[in-house]
## 1
Amino acid sequence: MIRKLLEAFFRHKWLVLLPPFLIPIVVTPIAFVTTPVAYESIVGVWVDNPTYLDVKSSQSFYTSAAQTQANQLTELLHTRNFMLDVVGRTSLAPLVGTPAGEARVADLIDKGVTVSSASSTSTHLLTIRSHFTTPQLAYQVAQAIVDAYSDRNSNQLVDQSSTAISFYQSQLQDAQDQSTQANQQLSQYAIAMGYASSGDGTPLAPDAQSASSFDPKFAELQASAHFAQQQVDAARSALQNAQQSSAAAIQGQDMSFQVLDPPQLPTAPVTSVKNILIYGIAALVIGLGLSTIVLVLLVAGDRSIRQDADLHPPVRVLGIVPTLTLKQRLPKALRGTATRRAIGFVAGTALPAPRGTK
Amino acid sequence: MVVSEREEAANRVDMIDTPQNDAAVLTQWQVPDADPDQNRDWLFPGVDEYFRGIYTRAGLGYASETLAVCSSISGEGKTTVSVGLAVTLALDFPESRVLLVETDLTKPVLAADFDVEETPGLVDCVHAGEPIQLAYRPTFLDNLHVVPVGGPLVGAGRILRSVRLASAIDAMRTTHDIVILDVPPVLVNSDSILLTDLADCVICVIRSGVTPLELVNKAISQLDAEKLRGVVINGSESAVPRWIRNMWAQ
């Protein structure tokens, strides 16, 4: 089979090799001409891993900040909410009113926006490429992505901070309430027992300080009031810490997403080398496939006999005579019978002797 | 005038009953001038070995036989193989007398190939009832003669089917040890079946890369299996470069 394939390939090499050469030669210029003009706006962003409030980072130690943010941004761009947020900031906003328009916008964003690390070795530099048919749209989308992502991160941190502060504030309020209640109980008991003159904050009698030593109830109320005060102090401290962390995170947000190269309005179209290459490679693959089909068809369709193995049923082969072609130039009249005359010239044919033959 | 020519012909036939007289009769034809380079080697060096292998495997040359060289369709090289076999046999067996007979009326080429007179040929002699020896043409090889088909005649196809043809072939057997009949394609001309029936053995020529297997099988099925010595694949040529073939062979 391999022998037949080789034979067919070399026998029809031009026919077999034509598709892989011809199709890319035809398709690539067509792709070059027909590929729509595109404009590209590029944003360079210095990023760091997202900062959260006292939350253990789930980021892999081996994933760079640029990769993390790129993955996050790419995933967000595939969400309807974020995508609509981005589109709403651009001239594509009118399209989002209908399902078909949203699908169209999603397709445009999917094909036109590329988020990646600036290079394979880049750990913090993120590149956002916006590739659209008009310079304004390319610029608007790039800017909108940066703004939407930045706003989203800020809002997220503010939400987290608010939640944390609210939590600690409620804890402080509870602690303060408990402390107030404990102090009131202590005061009422002290007044009732005569350890204090009134409940309006008048200091206890001098001997009241030692009352705890002989009055267990009073000692217990004193301890409760003291513990409640400690809880208030702890809650206040936690609230202060949360407020400080929140402020630091919000300020740090600016540091973890710094737009170093803001988007520019492109002034010249970019050559879509990638598309042309894809078309060229696809044409080459198609050409190779076509060649393979042609080769298989040539082998399958060749029912002629080239050697004894091709004879079915087997017949005794007495000999195989190769193609006999005279290298000498002959008169036109002799060309039809040249081979026979050359074979039989020793018997008297009139074929002129070739030069130099003895 | 016609009578005198026939008488001359009859006299000539009387003279060629024996090989010794044959040469004298053949001189009536204009024998080509002796080629000064007659002793030179084949124009295709080594090609005689191919034909030598064919007749050896076919068992020819060691007994008096009539060989029919046929093919399934035209253009397969049966005349080339016939010429090659005739010349090689004549060279290799100088004591044997070889006769190459052309029977394909549609494409007569032998006269042109050997640069001899076209008429009278096989059909002329058979049609006129004249001795077939009148159609013999000499060659540079003393023991090789050729018979062009002759004609053209109206109804020549019928002549090949006549009893006279069988008689003519019998006459050829008497004058020559090896008679090679270059017969028409089996699937194109039904005369070839008759001619192969008159022969002692048959060789079928197949053009490499041209003749479909189905046609070859069909042609072979029409031949007498006992007479078929085998097939010759003609015009074999591999398109694969030699270095690849060598690599493959290893």
Note: Strands of chain A lie at 39-47, 113-117, 125-132, 257-261, 317-322.
## 2
Amino acid sequence: MTTLRIKNVKKRYPNGAEAVKGVTVDVQDGELVVFVGPSGCGKSTLLRMVAGLEGITEGEIELAGRVVNDLEPAERNIAMVFQNYALYPHMTVRKNLAYGLKNRGTPKAEIDKKVQDAGELLQIAEFLDRKPSQLSGGQRQRVAMGRAIVRDPAIFLFDEPLSNLDAKLRNQMRLEIKNLQRRLKTAAIYVTHDQVEAMTLADRIVVLNHGQIEQIGTPSEVYSRPESIFVASFIGAPPMNLIPADVTEAGITVGDVTMPINTAHRGAVTLGLRPERVQIGDSGAPMRVTIVEELGATRLVHGILGGQDVTLAQDADGPPPSDLVHVAFKPEDAHFFDAKTGRRL
Amino acid sequence: MKKSRAIYDHVVLLFGVFVMMGPLAVAFMTSTFDYVTIHKEGMQFGFGGHFLETYSTVLNKQSGFTGEVTGWLMTKNSIVLGVGFALGKIVVSMLAAYAIVYFRFRAATFCFWIIFLTLLLPLEVRILPSYEVVQQMGLLNSYTGLILPLIASATGTFFFRQFFKSIPNELLEAARIDGAGPVRFFFDILIPLSKTMIAAIFIIMFVVGWNQYLWPTLMTTDESYFTLVRGIKQIMQNMIGADIPKYNEALAMAILAMVPPALVIIIFQRMFIKGLVEQEK
Amino acid sequence: MPYLLLAPQMVIIAIFFLWPAGEAIWSSFYLEDPFFGTATYVGMENYSDALTASDYRRTAIFTAIFVTLVSLLSLSIGLMLAVSADRVLRGKSTYKTLLMWVYAIAPPVAGLIGVMLFDQHIGPLVDFAAVFGWDMRIGVNYWDTGIAMIVVATWKQIPYNFIFFLSGLQSIPASVKEAAAIDCKSENRRFWTITFPLLAPVSFFLLILNITYAMFETFGLIDLIVKDQPGNSPVTLVYKVYRDGFRGNDLGGSSAQSVILMLLVLALTVVQFRLIEKRVHYN
């Protein structure tokens, strides 16, 4: 069953700027969909339109079977977790959690139970009577999530909730969010600019750019079959090598180097190669190594192939590469993009 | 987002504007009529033809007992008071705040509390003895006597103290490494950093100084030292005995007394508000 | 070096504050003969005289009413305007400018305009009151004059409160307001449970300032409205200090009243500091 239907939604501001240019996407029951993209791509705007914090210029948003375009946020049965937590500073944690329920006339006993349950689920039960100013960032984030959970909404809306946390805490919370969402089986939209978060959390990813959808797919689909250069370079770290090349009968030519390749494409293309899919071996195209970065388990080898900058990633087990190496890749690991439009060929 | 809310808000705000500006609009409009009309018909709406006439009278006419005081003279005195007070306050409080924040010396706490004490006793409460002191010093009817006693309060010092404390210590340390002594630091670094604050305080203090009433009323009996605001009282008193009081002139003077400070805070609105709100902390 | 910097401030304070303040306290214990300049020690007599005079009581009562009404009214109106100004989408800065600049008007100037507006012959507000059958006589009827003073003093103070409340409202993080929009349907309820409590620090601060304003800074306003007919016009305690001292030449009594007021301000300041300490715990 579909929890949320976003139908050709647009957002235009009075000065003419278009933040969202016609987006259509569905979220299924229990699914965690991630909206990912660079700053200004419209992901937050879209989220806020679902929440009711921004008006919808055109299109329709349907939540749990109801068209919610004209409904106030409090009427939509949503819950939102904000980037800076947005906890009510003058209320205790308990009151923060209870506030929404209280306003809907939920009986006190039920409120107490829900607050206690959320407290235990998120391990914040011990500070239910403290104020937000007395909590750390991670604890505040949990309270923000607790506030969303007690509402038992039709959908969770996460607006870059981990951006304000340090790296270690971020990794930890990421797992907790994933677990939580699975347990509660509630649909969720998660907005982030961090592609690692997107890849690890999502059931499906929606990649946005300049107010439009570039691609929708599962993490592995988006990773292994990017529909455009934008998606290819946005997803995956270190980013995909994008190399201008020319394909002829003889093979694919990069600069002055030609490698044999078995493909039907011909002409000018952009060749996409993920760093981890390029191997150093005995034979292959020659590459002059410029910089080697040791990351512990992996090694990044930067070099120049046919006049182009190329990066490849390898296990750090073996010896470091010499100045001149030979590189090769499997044909199924090569992505071909139209040199002009950037779309997948 | 709800339309009805927006309408309510605009209604409230428009009513507020009407209440705040209404009296002033009526006052101004009335001042452009001649006083006989005003006496017969009450305060007016619209414009009588006497704007130039009335205002130039107020500005140029010799009035008062000695017949020497003109509107222009009072304006000049108001400016002297406003600017003098603002400048004096800034200089004195900046120096004092600088001393308190950046120097370690034994009397520091003591001085701080004395300065703090001045907050407890506004001028109105010590008005008579202040008058006597100034009288004994022979400073009645002088600009010095007008301005100096008003500076004896803590507001400016506390304000700058707060601001100086917010400047990161690293700046002081970097300056020391660069060989700047206390005087250098003050002029080359502190003052430039404080520019916006100084401007904000200047604006607020100018308005405060210009609007002073009690003190000038008490200690300037010589009419040539009257400020516009002081002159208001004078013109009121003139009105009491007259058959037909010169309402138009009184209102004109009121308008003149309010225009300069109003202009200042409208033009420098942002700085003014910033200065006001900073004082809260 | 530091002494040099502090010198100007300290010297000014010493001459124009400590000395007069000391004199005020000293002379409150003496009965001074203004003509012969002799002073007789009378202990607390000035204080007891001042406090028991019916005049004093009447003035004190009026001052209390005046201060309470002016503070509460100008605070409420200022808040109401600030809430709307914060919410409104169009014309925000115009409204802001129009509503705040009245702050620049000196109290006596406001008093003069008030006197005219309430004048029996020419004042439109008197005509307006007459519509309700109310015959306003400023300068003749005690409470009519009092009401005029309260109205003008409130009017003058509204912009000040407006500015501070608006700034306070704008410092509430947008995301907190949005979270409240999601948690609570009724905008009214949101205001009283979220916005208003978060304005508490500003409100306390303003309350103290408003009380100080009403007690002390309204001198000029009152002086203009009073029109030299003491019997029929209410005044505040501060004004009485001036009148008894300068007009009535009762230096001892006036000084005693000054000291009483000083103690009042001291109490107010202590309260203010307690509240500031509370604020520190808030955040």
Note: The mean pLDDT of chain B is 81.
